[in-house]
Design a protein that fits this description.
Helices cover about 25% and strands about 25% of the residues. The chain contains nine helices and 19 strands. Strand 1 and strand 2 form a beta hairpin. Helix 1 crosses helix 4 and helix 6 crosses helix 8. The model has no long low-confidence stretch (mean pLDDT about 95).
Length: about 350
């Protein structure tokens, strides 16, 4: 496996539903400490490892993705002991009946439960974006005795494994673990290198609930160039497809459009040419959803922004799927891109639309 399996298991086993990312932040901090000159935070909890240039007034390059995952937040306790919880993130409703979820109380006691249907049709997520959970309690009093409280987060239980052919990894939170894993592996690879720019590599909070952390993080870093690490839905196996968009095993994604940002064309061309020159598998992709990239791109005076993404099947479900070959292509392309960066071409990216 081309991914550090020990690191993957460590990160993917940590729960980080939006607004409760402290545990994954602490894990990142422990990795960053030996790889960075310093570590910085914004006041929402986003974290960055900083690798400083020896040049004065160096431009800033920001490599970032989110570390929160979809899940639920406790909002009510029924008399029969079941729990009502609101969904946080764009969770696929059809994946939920019978799904196993975990809640950790504020005194670190853990409970495992199951999502129930609201009605005979098997509907789990109702019109209020609410789910019903059975943790085995018989009544409301028992729930309160165990210190479950409004605002507690519920995550999917871990279901991580590698396919029998070693090519794909199943993970309950790929959408919130791709960036942390990639960021650490990139920092390890460039540990002894020096650049003409200050490099900020890190992760943001609260992406699943409205791209919140990226706004404060961008104002913290003040980047001259942004690189977003994210996942996109794979449309490559569904029976009703008009076209395939994001195929597992066909390489990293060259994202040329989403509903909130039009990526810098010179950046896209540069990334594509790197992939062609070094024979790295890649594929064009467009998304009909938004992304963190929009905020990097349009905050302050604007920042040229590039995606380095991979396709994921079953995104925002209890078990999502990534192809290791796509991840490896993305990592190699990102490292080659970093090594090609100079003060001059960073400025050229900024001037592309003038």
């Amino acid at each position: 496996m081309s991914i550090d399996e020990t690191l993957f298991k460590k990160l993917s086993g940590i729960d980080s539903v939006s607004g409760d990312e402290r545990a994954i932040s602490l894990a990142l901090k422990s990795e960053y400490e030996s790889l960075a000159d310093s570590i910085v935070y914004d006041n929402l909890g986003s974290i960055f490892a900083v690798k400083k240039s020896k040049k004065a007034d160096a431009p800033r390059v920001m490599i970032v993705g989110h570390m929160d995952e979809s899940g639920f937040i406790l909002k009510g306790i029924n008399g029969n002991g079941t729990i009502r919880a609101l969904a946080l993130g764009n969770i696929e409703a059809t994946s939920l009946l019978g799904a196993s979820v975990k809640l950790k109380t504020r005194n670190d006691k853990t409970f495992i439960g199951t999502l129930l249907a609201h009605d005979k049709s098997g509907s789990v997520l109702d019109q209020s974006n609410e789910v019903l959970v059975d943790f085995g309690f018989e009544n409301k009093e028992e729930v309160l005795e165990n210190n479950l409280a409004f605002g507690d987060r519920l995550s999917f239980t871990s279901q991580n494994r590698v396919s029998s052919n070693g090519k794909r990894i199943y993970c309950k939170n790929w959408d919130g673990r791709y960036a942390p894993l990639m960021g650490i592996e990139v920092m390890r690879a460039i540990k002894d290198q020096e650049f003409d720019f200050d490099l900020y590599v890190g992760c943001t909070v609260q992406e699943q609930v409205g791209f919140r952390g990226i706004q404060t993080a961008t104002n913290l870093v003040k980047p001259d160039l942004g690189i977003v690490l994210d996942t996109n839905k794979a449309f490559d196996y569904q029976m009703d497809l008009k076209e395939k968009n994001g195929e597992l095993g066909k390489g990293m994604l060259i994202n040329f459009y989403d509903t909130t940002v039009l990526p810098n064309r010179l950046l896209l061309t540069t990334l594509k040419n790197i992939c062609i020159k070094h024979n790295l598998p890649h594929q064009y992709y467009y998304s009909m959803e938004g992304s963190d990239a929009a905020w990097i791109n349009k905050l302050r005076t604007g920042t040229p922004t590039l995606f380095v993404n991979v396709p994921i099947r079953n995104m925002n479900t209890p078990s999502s799927i990534m192809d290791i070959r796509d991840y490896e292509a993305a990592k190699k392309a990102l490292l080659l891109f970093l090594n090609s960066l100079t003060v001059q071409n960073i400025q050229e990216f900024k001037e592309e639309n003038r």
